[in-house]
Design brief:
About 45% of the residues lie in helices and about 10% in strands. About 25% of the residues are buried.
Length: about 130
Amino acid sequence: MLSKIHDDFMRDLKKIVIDFERAFGVKKYNDQHFMVDEKIIELMIKTAHLTKNDSVIEIGSGLGFLTEFLCEKAGIVIAIEKDSILSDYLCKRMKRKNLEMVNTEGIDYLRKNGSRFNKIVSNIPYSVSE
């Protein structure tokens, strides 16, 4: 199981989503689907076999729930979020030395920066999977 700090963080995920939605006066922000299932996030992290030697890309970082755990395990995390409101929100919420936030389209970033990472771990946005 995840550490006590992560357990507390995961317990607050739904509250973070509600607070974000209230702050921006929306019920469902830009048709976003935020990952709030602790078991799925834990499985994604475990399956990725991350070490401090890994440079990881996360496409569609959203509110940063997966990002938090990626930063804990990987050496470098490049979180890509094309929505500037979400990107700004995450920059303010997460201050991690090994996190680089990029406000751009994920596919464009991958094409131009393929050598900057060795793994992709992401709750892929629905629009990317179409």
